[in-house]
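TICKET: design request
STATUS: open
ATTACHED STRUCTURE:
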């Protein structure tokens, strides 16, 4: 593939005079390149040493440069609460702090766009939504955060307040309409209400479902077809517990309706009452033509007290446990996740958004295995760095292999 050449901006946005040059980065096709960015986009990609920097320069020698991951299924309002003594606080300042901290943790992992499922209703009312939207504003320029409004009930007398609150949440700034039809006495009516509100406001839909009821999935797929491709569901682990033929038919129905499935390879999330049910049958879904993205789910809350929220771990698990190639696994947390979230495509080519992740390593497989040191680029500037240094005690083996040793300052000790 020839080097990308400089491209003019076409989005009408004001030009950003600052620029950044990434040098010596390895791409997945084996090339070593320089990448110049400006105005939030990639301006040029050329062979190493061929581009000049107008201002800042970052040396990425020894790093693999990738399109940045995105998080299509996070629960930031409840994150980091697994070790809380007593009841979890749900005051607006507490939720805002948790959301901000967990979003920054995921940014450090490389995710520059996050979709956060926010519970509304009950005693807290719209407080959690207010807190997450405040966190979104404080994070602007570091990471893009989209809030999903998640009401508990939407049907019957009890659901009237939930439906009104759902509309209010969208007016406040929720960008996606969500929820969990499995927990409503009338799951079909719940989905109808969600789709109606989404159509009113032109919002995407992102629903929690276990997926264990094939008839219910078929109805959902039939109803969602009119909004394609803006409907996603997950984590759908129940599909894996169905008989093979029933699961295959359900997957074919989802594919025909253009419904995206967001699986959670790292564990459960708090959106469903069932826990420990495993991950969705990724191979079966993809074989049927379903678009499958991968998210993180719970980040150290009661649903998964050790959840990391790391997209690269999700990709690693897809490769190691679900038979995906490293490239397919990484696509599930990057290009496919971005498409599921309605975000522009990212490639390491001129003209594309400068949303990038550099990880120390030579090949994608090794990066998914040992993704320690990372450099995260959002809108054309470095917004997070993680550096890991490994050193060994002074021993004959370390000397023979010229490994970095304690007490010796060596640049090659970074992992």
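STATUS: resolved
RESOLUTION: sequence designed for all positions
ATTACHED SEQUENCE:
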């Amino acid at each position: 593939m020839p080097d990308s050449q400089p491209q003019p901006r076409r989005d009408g946005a004001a030009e950003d005079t600052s620029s950044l040059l990434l040098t010596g980065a390895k791409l997945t096709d084996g090339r070593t390149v320089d990448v110049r960015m400006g105005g939030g986009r990639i301006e040029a990609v050329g062979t190493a040493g061929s581009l000049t920097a107008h201002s800042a320069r970052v040396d990425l020698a020894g790093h693999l440069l990738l399109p940045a991951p995105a998080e299509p299924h996070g629960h930031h309002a409840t994150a980091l609460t697994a070790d809380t003594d007593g009841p979890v606080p749900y005051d607006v300042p507490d939720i805002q702090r948790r959301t901000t901290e967990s979003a920054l943790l995921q940014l450090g992992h490389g995710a520059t766009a996050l979709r956060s499922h926010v519970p509304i209703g009950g005693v807290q009312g719209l407080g959690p939504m207010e807190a997450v939207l405040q966190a979104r504003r404080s994070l602007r320029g570091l990471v893009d955060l989209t809030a999903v409004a998640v009401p508990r009930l939407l049907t019957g007398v009890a659901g009237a307040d939930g439906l009104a609150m759902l509309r209010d949440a969208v007016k406040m700034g929720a960008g996606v309409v969500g929820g969990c039809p499995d927990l409503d006495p009338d799951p079909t009516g719940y989905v109808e209400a969600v789709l109606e509100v989404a159509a009113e406001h032109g919002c995407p839909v992102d629903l929690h479902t276990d997926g264990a009821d094939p008839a219910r999935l078929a109805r959902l797929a039939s109803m969602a077809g009119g909004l394609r491709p803006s409907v996603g569901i997950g984590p759908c682990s129940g599909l894996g517990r169905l008989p093979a033929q029933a699961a295959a038919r359900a997957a074919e129905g989802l594919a025909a309706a253009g419904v995206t499935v967001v699986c959670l390879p790292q564990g459960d999330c708090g959106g469903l009452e069932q826990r420990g049910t495993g991950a969705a049958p990724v191979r079966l879904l993809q074989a049927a033509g379903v678009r499958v993205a991968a998210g993180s789910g719970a980040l150290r809350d009661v649903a998964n007290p050790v959840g990391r929220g790391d997209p690269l771990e999700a990709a690693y698990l897809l490769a190691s446990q679900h038979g995906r190639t490293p490239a397919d696994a990484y696509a599930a947390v990057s290009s496919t996740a971005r498409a599921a979230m309605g975000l522009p495509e990212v490639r390491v080519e001129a003209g594309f958004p400068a949303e990038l992740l550099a990880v120390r390593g030579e090949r994608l497989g090794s990066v998914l295995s040992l993704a320690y040191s990372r450099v995260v680029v959002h809108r054309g500037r470095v917004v997070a760095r993680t550096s890991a240094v490994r050193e060994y005690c002074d021993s004959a083996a370390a000397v023979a292999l010229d490994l970095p040793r304690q007490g010796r300052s060596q640049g090659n000790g970074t992992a």
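CLOSING REMARK: The longest helix spans residues 92-109. Residues 212 and 324 are 23 Å apart (CA to CA).
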